[in-house]
Amino acid sequence: MASVKRLYKADSNLGNPLNTNFDVDFVIDYRFATTGKAEAEAQFVKLIESLNNVGLATEVRNGDNCAVLIFVKIASDQHLKAEVYRSRVQDWLYGVRAAAPEKQMQKNLKDEPVTQAERLRLVYLLITKPKNEGGAGITPKSGEWKGVESVFALHDNTFNKAWIKELSSKYWLMAEDFNVIKDRFGEKIAYYFSFLQSYFLFLTFPAIFGFCAWILLGQFSPIYAVVQSLWGIVFVEYWKKQEIDLAVQWGVRGVSKIQHKRPAFKHESIVKDPITGEDIKVYSPMKRLARQLLQVPFAITVAAVLGSLIAGCFAIEIFISEVYDGPFKSYLTFLPTVILTTVMPTLSTLLTGFASKLTDLENYETVDAHEAAMIQKVFVLNFVTSYLPIFLTAFVYVPFAQIIVPHLDVFQLAVKPFAESEKQMEAPKAGFQINPDRLKKQIIYFTVTAQIVNFALEVVMPYVKRKVFVKVKEVKAERAAKRGGTSSPTADDHPEESEFLARVRSEAELGNYDVTGDFREMIVQFGYLSLFSVIWPLVPVSFLINNWIELRGDALKIALETQRPVPWRADSIGPWIDCLGFLAWLGSLTSAALIYLFSGDGLGPEGSPWNIKGWGLLLAMFFSEHIYLAVKLGVRNALSKVDSPGMQKERGERFLVRKQYLAESMGQEEAEKAATGGIAAGEKISRSTLEYAATLGGNGTPEERFWQRQPGQQETIAAGRKYIQKKAAPTESKDTESKKEL
Amino acid sequence: MASVKRLYKADSNLGNPLNTNFDVDFVIDYRFATTGKAEAEAQFVKLIESLNNVGLATEVRNGDNCAVLIFVKIASDQHLKAEVYRSRVQDWLYGVRAAAPEKQMQKNLKDEPVTQAERLRLVYLLITKPKNEGGAGITPKSGEWKGVESVFALHDNTFNKAWIKELSSKYWLMAEDFNVIKDRFGEKIAYYFSFLQSYFLFLTFPAIFGFCAWILLGQFSPIYAVVQSLWGIVFVEYWKKQEIDLAVQWGVRGVSKIQHKRPAFKHESIVKDPITGEDIKVYSPMKRLARQLLQVPFAITVAAVLGSLIAGCFAIEIFISEVYDGPFKSYLTFLPTVILTTVMPTLSTLLTGFASKLTDLENYETVDAHEAAMIQKVFVLNFVTSYLPIFLTAFVYVPFAQIIVPHLDVFQLAVKPFAESEKQMEAPKAGFQINPDRLKKQIIYFTVTAQIVNFALEVVMPYVKRKVFVKVKEVKAERAAKRGGTSSPTADDHPEESEFLARVRSEAELGNYDVTGDFREMIVQFGYLSLFSVIWPLVPVSFLINNWIELRGDALKIALETQRPVPWRADSIGPWIDCLGFLAWLGSLTSAALIYLFSGDGLGPEGSPWNIKGWGLLLAMFFSEHIYLAVKLGVRNALSKVDSPGMQKERGERFLVRKQYLAESMGQEEAEKAATGGIAAGEKISRSTLEYAATLGGNGTPEERFWQRQPGQQETIAAGRKYIQKKAAPTESKDTESKKEL
């Protein structure tokens, strides 16, 4: 296999039409199926013009199902350079770069070549930024640009092939792999991969330990719980440090301060900034706060709706499996699962839609704020859907089964049609034994089965779908061709381009990649680990395996199944880190509770889990939580002491700036001093300085007279000597005298 | 009374010898009572020389009990300016100042006059900084400079008088008052006063509310607890924001990054910094961590030692007051108090000494780190001494009295000598009623009596002591004079200076002001409020009154009873804020517990406080804590939304720097664009740019050919039109056709 490095670096100009992108930066997929011809044309012209106006060259080609593909590249090298330089200066102004960029544009660009990610990002901004900020102001799918279906960059197949090969051929990724990702797909995605990577590496420990625990300690082992939650603390704190470190290494520290305005933002009024004099579009924060408070009812609704659904199905399942013993029992057991799998997804999509509506309502100025708010709500949704079932089993079913089961008769109607006699549906009034395995079974389902299913849905499914889709298209095309339909888009493709265009057309059909979705998955997974893994210590093992595949799968997804993502920058994984912290903290509570409830063959301390002592349970949780918080503090403290490459880099850069500035402001030799440890040694005072006073003679202010009494060093020393002479000797004697007197 | 402002501004050159300081910056009190004459002289000469070497002018005069007073001022105005400028540049380098100081020294100094605090700070640094950093390296009381008793600045009496008058004449201080304090005594002390001030203002609310609660709700009211702890959250979060804001307004934001090296720091090895090439003295952090872990046993010891002492006295007291009923009971009741008041102070001073030893052992590089570590330990000490007694009463005595009291017979020996019969000392085996008032009494003692006593010790006592001391000295002096002892220091004072020198000599005798002590007081006070004020809602009222006096008292202390403090800078109140947070958080636990335990006339829910339900108690605490944490998060969030003058200032400065830089780097007009909202609009591409491709003709790379197919805007538009024409019309018909086919 050829040197991976070389393949990585390989750019697309390899002649081979499947690989070349003809220098295209972005493709705009403009559709006019629904619009009238005249309007479509007018809008198209407008589009081309506004693109050219911001210095973008355009080519147009035919697209599938009444669309044209507009190929965009930045018109002149000069223009690109200007853009790059401006953005770098802006970075510096916002404190993203420590060192001010060289004032000579060319030099700066030579020192720091433009990466693909940087180029694409800037071009994309040129296309989408509002006019007043110097962009073409094209907002896909919204406003006057409804016609613009998507604005996407073209995949670099040569690179993608090499990349996938590389990833699947090594056990874990190195720093340079992330650099490659960052230079191709932007920091935001690089962050995802590097997070997934560290998470994967960290998992090895609990996986091994969990396996041993599974063999030696069995489930609900306090030792495992302690180790696991300690691990959780270390991981979260480590990542907090690591993400800053990466930001510095990638030179994007604080990039989140450079906010992209949301086109959808509606401002109430425009205020002149008192100092900067900038016009700021404002929306009263109080109003927003009020709307944000809607999240509380939202969360409650979510919990209520999904909760009742889950609880309901759960109850039915218990009723059928534990109470009912008529015919078809084996089939009926699946009834609740069926209900869940059909109703749940629709419900959650519904709620997600509602959440995004809510977020729009909150009307944030910037994209980041908007995203963050959305993530919060999504997290709540996922929290309920993913963890509630287990909470129900662990903290409702097991402790209170005795009380609940008898009342489950309400669900008789669910099975009435099948039961022969009332008896079959009667709950045993007493002596009902709960089934302690249920919990474990559930965990295994969520942490193994679900993961696999999920992966299938995520990677395999779309692949198949796509293949089918392509086939259908071909068939259609053939038919059209048979009927000599000139309307086939490929008709007037230039032979040299045809393959290329075919590729572009198929890429135009792809969905776009959403990194938050992948993040969500990982966070939820971490949740299972920290909340419930005491129930079944093999959880981390399953995750370890899953994540190795997950990482490659996601890479595959990006390379083959989605349009090339816009390479956005980021300086952290954003609000997800808080979710992690929250889950780790909650874990300290649940683990303690679970252990207390189930310690001893899945039954409570008194052998029967449902009459445990409340205060004991609470005490266990109370201590575990506060120990957790204390340890967390300690770990954070310890980690903060450790130096890291990123910090070193930062220090280094700051130092350089310092010296340079000082060199300018106060000759070289001074600079040396001042830069290293501050104030330089004061120059020795010439006698003259001290004696100027003497010249004044007896006259002058009292101050002058005071300072002239000992005009020079010699005089001062002499005077001092005199005093000491006089004192030092008689001291003792005098003291003794005074003693005598007293 | 003359305009306060003027008095504030008044500098000391008023001729009146009591007010003038003869331009003296610092006085060095050099004592040689214990050293031999020769050595004393040599050291003295060395002292003078090293002072002159760093550009300080010196005068020497006679001091009390074998000491000479060395008067120091910066030799030349030029030299001062250089120092000021260097320090300002350094500030900028460390990011303390947003805007780079004008490169022309003179201009910068004109724009920003040197404050007294700045001048004194720099001179003090000149005197004390190690030689290699350009100072004279004089370390009072340590190393070769054991002889140097103290290095102190002289009080500005005119200002002090005006200041005290001002403070005592207004109800609360304004921003300008703090500015004055900052310019005279430095930011660190200004922070203390401004903290005390905000605390005082915030107290008004709980004071009023508490008073109402006391009348309407009585003690242990949940409502009061909720309101009070909400108040606590708001106060702590507010201050966190406020202290940053002040730092920005005072231009010291991030000043804590400029660390002063500890002379006492012992380094293991010297490492060259990989990047900066600076020599760094390092001490292995692991070793330090190991030593820091000693704090755990330390804390335990403290708790154990003081705890057992307190518990012991407590038990004896109970025994005597509740069990014993022989003669002298009334007197014996004081026995424990006597023990406490005698043993406790000695013990805690002992432990404090131990703590400082421990801190030295931890061997920090910088003064700040050292201080922070010390504060931690001091906090632990104070926590035990201040709160443990109440904890004992509330959570041990009241709930478990029934169990404990019978076992108190062990203390019989304490009273044996007085008792007539065994009976008098026998604990009632049963039916013992605990005394619910005890708790309230204790609180009142700690929050009223103790505060007053404390104030007396702090302000009145030293004043008296000083007066006495002066008297004694005079008497001695007279005696000496009578015996014609030439050894009286005042003997050869120049008449013009004599009064001034007398003042200096007395100031030399004063102790120096320690702001951390005052902080400690306030934090401990806040603790009582947040931990126990549910017991007696009048607590905040008492504190409100106390703090009004406290603030003035502290000012008085600084002005009259201590040497003028060195005006250090600071950008926060340091680790104290964490202590505040901790106490507020702990309050959420204790308040809940207290209410649960005592709700209903100081007795438990079942009427008798000692058989409460454990789980109920824990549940109450559990909820209260987590609600607390949630609310805290919310409040922090809400506050972060609010804009503040400090932030505005910062933004403004940053904006100016931006514009200025851009103006330099890319003409004015560009700057406008780039500064407001980043990248400027790309210039319209001339047709030539687009057409360069055409010139190439059919040859050239595939890319070139691709981009030349539609050389200009017109061509592109035309092509697009064609496609649309062809498609838009037939679309429907074709679709229907294909439908037919299927």
TrEMBL record, chains A, B:
Residues 732-742 have a biased composition (Basic and acidic residues). Residues 181-651 form the Anoctamin transmembrane domain. It is found in: Membrane. GO terms for molecular function: chloride channel activity. Residues 23-148 form the Anoctamin alpha-beta plait domain. The keyword Membrane applies. Keywords: Membrane, Transmembrane, Transmembrane helix. One of its GO terms (cellular component) is membrane. InterPro entries: Anoctamin (IPR007632), Anoctamin_N_fung (IPR049456), Anoctamin_TM (IPR049452). It is a multi-pass membrane protein. It comes from the Eukaryota. Residues 723-742 are annotated as: Disordered. The chain crosses the membrane at residues 189-217, 223-239, 296-320, 332-358, 379-400, 443-464. This is Increased sodium tolerance 2.
